[in-house]
């Protein structure tokens, strides 16, 4: 495979990876990002890369079975991305991030009510927690895949978050709104007032009208 193949797509992945870093969703070599191509292959950030500085030469190309198609060492979380794409035919992008407030909430003993801002029901939808599992493991990938069909964000205990979206821009948007939501939760956990239950269906209709 030539270095110029998927040039525009790689540049797009780099742009949104750097945005993830600029917006504080990842730090240093934490996190990884991928996008599914029209031919079914997947672009994913390489092992140990810093998303905030990602270059086209640090992007790995794999096929739908996880076989590498270029010489870049793939992220250790490649199984996670692959299984999410298998479980979500509608997915065009996956971001694994570790923003401070969202990761703090992932470590809570009890799952909070995330409906503290309208962006959660409108742009994100439901959110699920899974227990700590070894990063990069098949067990982690399979556990995430088992619950991703009905959820756009997965909270991985003591690890971070996985967000799935139709495209890269939407994945970053959902992650940013989720971090905002978790920041509110961490700052107001003792006196938190959430969106009334009866208003949630109204907001879901609002979301459908905007799609």
Which characteristics define this entry?
211 residues, seven-stranded mixed sheet, globular
Q: How are the strands ordered across the major sheet?
A: 3-2-1-4-7-6-5
Shape estimate: globular
Q: Count the E strands.
A: 7
- What structural class is derived from the secondary structure elements? alpha+beta
Number of helices: 7
> How would you state the average pLDDT, rounded?
92
Order of helices and strands: HEEEHEHHEHEEHH
**CATH homologous superfamily grouping:** Class II aldolase/adducin N-terminal domain
Which strand-content bin applies to the residues?
15-25%
Radius of gyration: 17 Å
Low-confidence runs (pLDDT<50, min 5 residues)? Answer: none
CATH class value: Alpha Beta
Count of domains: 1
* Measured distance between first and last alpha carbons: 36 Å
What is the correct CATH architecture? Answer: 3-Layer(aba) Sandwich
Largest sheet: 7 strands, mixed
CATH fold-level name:
L-fuculose-1-phosphate Aldolase
Helix content: 25-40%
């Amino acid at each position: 495979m030539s270095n110029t193949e998927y040039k525009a797509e790689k540049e797009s992945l780099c742009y949104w990876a750097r945005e993830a870093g600029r917006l504080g969703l990842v730090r240093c070599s934490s996190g990884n990002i991928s996008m599914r191509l029209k031919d079914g292959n997947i672009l994913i950030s390489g092992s140990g890369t810093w998303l905030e500085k990602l270059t086209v030469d640090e992007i790995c190309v794999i096929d739908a079975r996880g076989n590498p198609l270029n010489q870049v060492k793939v992220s250790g979380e490649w199984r996670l991305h692959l299984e999410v794409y298998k479980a979500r035919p509608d997915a065009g992008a996956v971001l694994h991030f570790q923003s401070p407030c969202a990761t703090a909430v992932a470590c809570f003993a009890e799952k909070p009510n995330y409906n503290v801002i309208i962006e959660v029901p409108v742009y994100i939808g439901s959110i699920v927690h899974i227990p700590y599992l070894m990063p990069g493991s098949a067990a982690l990938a399979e556990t995430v895949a088992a619950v991703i069909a009905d959820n756009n964000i997965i909270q991985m205990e003591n690890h971070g978050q996985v967000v799935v979206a139709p495209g890269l821009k939407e994945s970053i948007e959902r992650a940013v709104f989720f971090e905002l939501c978790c920041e509110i939760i961490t700052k107001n956990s003792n006196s938190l007032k959430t969106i009334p239950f009866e208003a949630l269906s109204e907001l879901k209709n609002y979301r459908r009208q905007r799609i």
